[in-house]
Specification:
Keywords: Amino-acid biosynthesis, Decarboxylase, Lyase, Lysine biosynthesis, Pyridoxal phosphate. Pfam families: Orn_Arg_deC_N. Helices cover 29% and strands 23% of the residues. With 384 residues, the protein is an alpha/beta fold. It has 2 domains: 22-272, TIM Barrel (Alpha-Beta Barrel), CATH 3.20.20.10; 273-380, Lyase, Ornithine Decarboxylase, Chain A, domain 1. Helix 8 (196-214) runs parallel beside helix 9. The longest helix has 19 residues, at 196-214. It is elongated and about 70 Å long. The two termini are 19 Å apart.
Length: 384
């Protein structure tokens, strides 16, 4: 599936900006819906990947729930139309104000990460005169084979309840009158392309289910998280990951008790390929060993290359000349403000339109105003 960009229209728009291919987003959502419904699975969209309101509204229209990690994400999801009972709220450091936001919106579940958090939710729920549904986020100690900044399921990470503390946590839940044990929750990391990691997760979940059976406290919800990766190098050839194989793994390897629901939290794999950061070349500067294509987008608009040394495919949309190599850099006063080194592009000149691909996840949402730069605007294929 080739992504056709309206380059002439881009010329008339002030850069940098995010461009969203809404048809690709809808195609992706349709596949997720079809493949997950084969097994009766429940899919929540991880709002932290992209909270653009039009994106959220489109995702909600396909019946997905919302997975939130802040009180403001809960509010944004509700404003975009997600029903409160399809909103789940995770996070290792929920404030009282954020918990109250969740309680007032009658969200489906809090994914709880510690005994102190359980106690605070119980106290605040009592003051509101309600009972809060909670799922225990368990750290399964499963390696996700991904960047060390975005792995979350190892004992060395800050996330989740350690397996050896589960009995103590369950004892505490039985003491609390304003929390209701609803489920168990896992998330092992992000940008996972080795599906064997999910097989390992299923095995660990099956083992842990035995503990809950012994206590006669069968969780209704088994939330296995998300983290499914995408192809950053070949966005046109692979515009969406293999959702069919992904969901089938859990059907093949997860051993469920009667009445249990399987929930997912997909973020990057839903929105990443539909988004592109569009920029213009300001200058081409000849260096000693390389040429620099200096663009008007910077690490304030897309921080992933600077933060994770992440790869994004870079294309010159307005040149068809012979290829040359460039370091594609931004205008910010940091050496890390670089989108790619020795990038092969058609001969590039001032004013050329540059596309930085696969930027729909952790792009616009992480934009900042470092150097007092303006936040990038968003435009949509359906409007151009």
């Amino acid at each position: 599936m080739e992504n056709h960009f309206p380059v002439e229209k881009f010329q008339a728009i002030e850069t940098p900006f995010y461009y969203y291919n809404m048809q690709l987003l809808e195609d992706t959502l349709q596949v997720i819906k079809e493949e997950s419904e084969k097994y009766g699975y429940h899919v929540h969209y991880a709002v932290k990947a992209n909270a653009n309101k039009k994106i959220l509204e489109t995702i909600n229209s396909y019946g997905l729930g919302a997975d939130c990690v802040s009180g403001n994400e809960v509010s944004a999801s509700i404003e975009a139309g997600f029903p409160g009972n399809k909103v789940v709220y995770a996070g290792v450091g929920k404030t009282d104000k954020e918990i109250i936001t969740g309680l007032k919106n009658n969200i489906g579940c809090f994914n709880v990460e510690s005994i102190p958090e359980l106690e605070v939710i119980n106290e605040l729920a009592e003051k509101q005169g309600v009972v809060a549904n909670v799922a225990l986020r368990i750290n399964p100690n499963v390696k996700a084979n991904t960047h060390h900044y975005i792995t979350t399921g190892l004992e060395e990470n800050k996330f989740g309840i350690y397996i050896w503390d589960l009995e103590k946590v369950m004892d505490k839940i039985e003491e609390l009158d304003h929390v209701n044990f609803k489920g168990i929750h896992f998330h092992i990391g992000s940008q996972i392309n080795d599906l064997d990691s999910y097989k390992q997760l299923c095995v660990r979940v099956n083992e842990l289910q035995e503990l809950f059976k012994q206590r006669r406290a069968i969780p209704q919800i088994v939330n296995v998280g998300g983290g499914l990766g995408i192809d950053y190098e070949n966005p046109d050839e692979n515009p969406m990951p293999d959702f069919k194989a992904f969901f089938k793994i859990f059907d093949d390897f997860l051993e469920l008790e009667e009445g249990q629901e399987v929930h997912f939290e997909l973020g990057r794999s839903v929105v990443c390929q539909c988004g592109t950061l569009i920029s213009k070349v300001i200058y081409v500067k000849e260096g000693v060993n390389t040429h620099f294509a200096i663009v008007d987008a910077g690490m304030s608009d897309l921080i992933r290359p600077a933060l994770y040394q992440a790869y994004h495919k870079i294309e010159n949309l307005s040149s068809d000349q012979e290829d040359e190599k460039y370091d594609v850099v931004g205008p910010i006063c940091e050496s890390s403000d670089c989108f790619g080194k020795a990038v092969t592009l058609p001969k590039t000149s001032r004013g050329d339109i540059i596309a930085i691909r696969s930027a729909g996840a952790y792009g616009e949402i992480m934009a900042n105003q470092y150097n007092l730069r303006q936040l990038p605007k968003a435009f949509y294929s359906s409007d151009l």
